[in-house]
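Translate structure to sequence.
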């Protein structure tokens, strides 16, 4: 199992929550520093999401070929993979809108970016739950050696 995917995906879930807090603080205080912080946080989440996608693609091959995933988990795994790209697309859209909001000093773009950040948080939490279910419900990412060693079948 790739040891890089789990830490990356935790950042992809946590960073949008922090960006949401920063964006909300901007709306309350009207201090541009919070809006810029939200933009930087979303940008960092986008970078980490690319790393999560790359490490996840590497994991998918190993999980399907070398590990003992429950058969119903294969379709859940494919859905999780596709939804990962949806998260990246929303991150890209959020970054672009947030950039316009800051560069044009536009309240409309700030409102749209807030909605996108809320959407991003929702989608990221769903994706995180989906990944957790793959591990705990369908045994994805658990090495066969561990299963044999513990006598689980």
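Result:
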């Amino acid at each position: 199992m790739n040891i890089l995917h789990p830490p990356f995906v935790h950042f992809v879930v946590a960073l949008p929550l922090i960006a949401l807090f920063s964006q909300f603080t901007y709306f309350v205080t009207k201090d541009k520093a919070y809006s810029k912080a939200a933009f930087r946080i979303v940008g960092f989440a986008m970078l980490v999401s690319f790393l999560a996608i790359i490490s996840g693609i590497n994991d998918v091959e190993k999980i399907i070929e070398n590990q003992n995933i429950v058969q119903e988990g294969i379709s859940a795994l494919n859905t999780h993979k596709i939804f990962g790209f949806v998260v990246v697309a929303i991150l890209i859209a959020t970054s672009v809108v947030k950039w316009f909001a800051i560069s044009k000093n536009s309240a409309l773009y700030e409102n749209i970016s807030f909605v996108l950040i809320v959407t991003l948080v929702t989608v990221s939490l769903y994706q995180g739950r989906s990944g957790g279910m793959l591990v705990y419900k369908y045994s994805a990412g658990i090495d066969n050696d561990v299963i044999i060693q513990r006598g689980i079948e």
